[in-house]
Amino acid sequence: MICIDCVTPNPLKKLFDTHGKEGDCKYCGRHGYAVESAQLFNYVYERVAENVAGKDDLSNYELCMLYDCGSDFIAVSEIDIVLMEWFELENEPYFDDLCKGVPAEFRKDNEGNETHFYGDDGSLEQNVYEYRWQKFVDDVQYKHRYFNAGADKFLDSVFSVLLTEEGELKPEVLRTVTHGEMLYRARHAQSQKQAEEIIRNPASEFGPTPKHLASSQRMTPNGISALYCSLDRETCLSEIRSITGDHVVSVALTPVSEVKLLDLTVMDQVEPPALTLLDKGCRESLHRKVFLGSLVKKMSRPKGRNDELSYLSTQVVFEYLRLRFGKSVQGLVFPSVQTGETGTNIVLFPESSRLAYLPPEKHDLADGPAPQAAPIKPPHGPQASLIVAPDSIRFHKITAIETKAKEYAKIYELYMSDLTRRRLGLDDK
User: Fold this and answer.
1) How far apart are CA 20 and CA 35, in angstroms?
2) 336, 241 in Cβ contact below 8 A?
3) How far apart are CA 60 and CA 51, in angstroms?
4) 283 neighbors 107 (Cβ within 8 angstroms)
5) Would you call 332 helix, strand, or coil by DSSP?
C-alpha cells in the first residue's frame, strides 16, 4: 500500500477520497491513510492511455515526418520518460515500481517494436473535436435533423468551456452594447417608391423579415426570423451582397437600454481548466481549445453553391445557443466573411429582434414621408430591444464592389487543402 504522505500530485491524492483506508505504507513504513498500490498505478496507466498520443493517433504524414524525415516537431518518448518527465513522477518513492508494472503494450507494440508515445497539445491533425464536428454535421444533414440527442451532447461538451463552475457564462465571452452605441442594418430599395415605404415605417421595414418570408440564413432556417446587424455601416452594406448600381437604405440602431451578447469571436481566447496529464480529460480539453479556434470560421463560412444543406449545422448551433443561454444573452457576435473577417456581425435571437421608433416632433418633408411611430412597449408582444436612432437613415448607390484575392504562382497552390497548407506552414502566407 501507499500512504497519502508519499504521494505528491493532487490528482493522485484525490484517489484517497474514494479508495483510502487504514494500512501500512510500503514506502515510508508508517501506518496511516493509504490506498492499494495497484489502484494508484492503474489510475496512472489509464491517464497515459487517455492523455498521451499513440501511433494510431498520428496521421501517416506526421509519422513520415518523424521517422523518415527526422522532424522533431512532435515530442517522442518511451514509457519511462513519459512517467518520469511528462508526468513528473521521477521523485515519487514508488516510481521504480510504477515503471516495472506498466502494461506490456507500453513496452512493445503488436509488431514487437518498441512502443513510442507522442506529445499532443491538440494541434495534431487528428483532433478529436474535429472528428466529432464532422460527425455532427453529417448527422444533422443526413440522419437525425430534428431529434438529435447526440448533437445536444456534443454541443454541451464544446461550449462547456464557456461556463463558470456555477454554470454561468464567463465574463470574457460576454459583450454588452449599451444605449448610444450603434448597430447598422440595410435594405435594398429597387425604386424611390420602395425607399419611401422603408422610411415611412422604419421599425417594421428594418426589423426582422416576416416569418412567412424568412428564407434560410446562416443562423436561421426557413420560417424563423432573427435580426442580423453589423457594427459598422460598411460591413452592413457588404453583408446584403449589394452589386454595382444597387440602391440601398441603411439605418443605425441602438439598444433601448442594453443588449448582452455571446461573443463567438473570442471563444478561442477562453482558457480551459488547468489540468495536468494526471487529470481525467486533459487531452480532450486541449483538443477542444484548438477546435474552438476553428469553430467560428466554420460557423462564418459562406454557403456553397447549390448546397442547401451547408447552413444546417450553424442553424442547429444557433438554436442550441438560443435555448441554452437565451436567459443570459440576447444574441451572438460573429465575424463577417464578406469583409474578410475584418468586420463584425450581430444576430439577435428572434424573441429579442423587435425594433421601436420614436419620430422627432418636427419632420422635414424633403426627407420623404413622415415616419410612423413604433412604441418600445406595445400593448401586446415583447418589448423592443433596439430603437431606430434619430436622423440615422442614409441612402446609398453602390458604385463599385472591391474584390480581394490571394494570388498563387502555381495551380496546385490554388487547390491546396487547408490541411496541406497547414502541413507546409503556409497558413499565413
Assistant:
1) 5
2) no
3) 20
4) no
5) strand
- Domain range list for the chain: 2-118, 173-264+319-397
CA dist., res. 42 & res. 48, Å (int): 10
Residue with cell 433601448: 256
Look-up of cell digits 477562453 = 270
User: Across the strands, what pairs with 258?
Assistant: 178
The grid coordinates of residue 118 equal 507522442
- In the DSSP assignment, the letter for residue 85 is I
* 49-53, 179-183, 308-312: least confidently modelled range: 308-312
Cell of 161: 468551456
> Which residues does 166 contact at the CB level (< 8 Å), separation at least 6?
none
CA distance 83 to 103: 13
| pLDDT class of 367 with cuts at 50, 70, 90 | low
Judged by DSSP in three states, 96 sits in: helix
pLDDT bin (cut points 50, 70, 90) of residue 90 is very high
pLDDT range class, residue 391, cuts 50, 70, 90: confident
* Cα–Cα dist 141/228, whole Å: 24
Task: For residue 367, give the DSSP letter.
Answer: G
Q: With the CA atoms of 186, 188, 192 and 194 taken in that order, what torsion angle do they form, in degrees rounded to the nearest 10?
A: -90
pTM of the model: 0.84
Contact 394, 189 (CB under 8 A): no
Residues 6+ apart with CB under 8 A from 200: 368, 369, 370, 371, 372
Kindly give the residue spans of alpha helices, DSSP state H, lying in 240-383: 282-300, 312-325
pLDDT value at position 352? 93
Q: Strand pairing of 258-263 and 331-335? A: parallel
Question: Quick check: 348 and 259 in contact, CB under 8 A?
Answer: yes
Q: Tell me the pLDDT of the chain averaged across its residues.
A: 89
Which residue's entry shows cell 511528462?
Answer: 86
Q: d(Cα 373, Cα 359) in Å, to the nearest integer?
A: 6
Which of 193, 218, 230, 183 is closest to 344 using CA atoms? 230
Q: What is the DSSP letter of 311?
A: T
